[in-house]
């Protein structure tokens, strides 16, 4: 049971901003009041203050409200301070110590994943992934974990045709239908895998890290030599990755699944 906030006004402001951030576009004040179960007068008062401070923008012709420039600046500050990397690095290191295999943390950028943290286990094969490296999301376990967690419409927009699905040595989903089957499998299993599609003989298991709105903020993957673990052992690896992803999600105020 949650303890009642000692600063209810501050809590209402944060709930309002969080709600606006989760919407696909500007929203009427009445919808905000209904969603947050707040009096309309209170919502209008909060919105007036937030508009004045630049955190919310009012679209008078549409009678709607959306996030403002000041909210965007907060997002930029989040990127500059690299909290995902700072919070994720010790957790990834612990995961590597636990499993004795290499692990990494990535974010989705367009059709690529970008590596933020890379921890190599001792005496393990060298990998193509390093901090700052980009790889096709649909070919990596971490990218598949992220793609499986976003709406189908976003996946269709990222991969509008077969040409957008890059292959490596002829391996990987070569059509949107094949990609859909891969992502359906991720949702069914609860974790994503990749088997030799980036580097022959190397496999990975990955899960998404959820943010406060339940959206995938990042993904964590463990990468290992394919001959070290039979596929029947991969769910056990996924359990370890899941615990790490859940902890990072908790640290960023997210909702692990």
Kindly describe this structure.
The protein is of the alpha+beta class and 257 residues long. The chain folds into two domains: 8-75, Orthogonal Bundle (Arc Repressor Mutant, subunit A); 82-251, GAF domain (Beta-Lactamase, 2-Layer Sandwich), CATH 3.30.450.40. It has helices spanning 8-22, 29-36, 40-53, 69-81, 83-99, 141-147, 152-158, 176-189, 234-251; strands spanning 56-59, 64-67, 102-109, 112-119, 134-136, 192-195, 202-210, 216-225. The strands form two sheets. A six-stranded antiparallel sheet has the order 5-4-3-8-7-6, sandwiched between helices. A two-stranded antiparallel ribbon has the order 1-2. Helix 2 (29-36) crosses helix 3 (40-53) and helix 5 (83-99) packs antiparallel against helix 9 (234-251). GO terms for molecular function: DNA binding; DNA-binding transcription factor activity. Residues 7-69 form the HTH iclR-type domain. Residues 70-254 form the IclR-ED domain. InterPro entries: GAF-like_dom_sf (IPR029016), HTH_MetabolicPath_Reg (IPR050707), Tscrpt_reg_IclR_C (IPR014757), Tscrpt_reg_IclR_N (IPR005471), WH-like_DNA-bd_sf (IPR036388), WH_DNA-bd_sf (IPR036390).
């Amino acid at each position: 049971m949650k303890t009642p906030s000692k600063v209810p006004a501050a809590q209402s402001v944060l709930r309002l901003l969080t709600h606006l951030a989760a919407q696909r576009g500007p929203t009427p004040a009445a919808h905000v009041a209904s969603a947050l179960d707040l009096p309309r007068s209170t919502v209008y008062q909060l919105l007036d203050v937030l508009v004045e401070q630049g955190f919310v923008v009012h679209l008078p012709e549409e009678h709607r409200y959306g996030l403002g420039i000041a909210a965007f600046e907060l997002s930029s500050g989040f990127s500059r301070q690299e909290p995902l990397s700072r919070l994720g690095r010790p957790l990834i290191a612990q995961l590597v110590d636990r499993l004795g295999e290499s692990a990494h943390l990535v974010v989705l950028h367009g059709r690529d994943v970008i590596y933020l943290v890379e921890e190599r286990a001792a005496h393990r094969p060298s990998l193509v992934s390093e901090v700052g490296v980009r790889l096709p999301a649909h070919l990596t376990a971490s990218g598949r974990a992220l793609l499986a967690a976003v709406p189908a419409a976003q996946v269709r927009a990222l991969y509008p045709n077969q040409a957008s699905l890059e292959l490596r040595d002829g391996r990987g989903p070569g059509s949107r239908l094949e990609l859909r089957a891969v992502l359906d499998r991720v949702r069914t299993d609860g974790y994503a895998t990749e088997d030799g599609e980036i580097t022959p003989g190397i496999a990975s298991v990955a899960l998404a890290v959820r943010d406060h709105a339940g959206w995938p903020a990042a993904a964590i993957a463990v990468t290992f030599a394919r001959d070290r673990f039979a596929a029947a052992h991969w769910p056990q690896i996924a359990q370890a990755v899941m615990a790490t992803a859940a902890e990072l999600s908790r640290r960023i105020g997210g909702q692990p699944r």
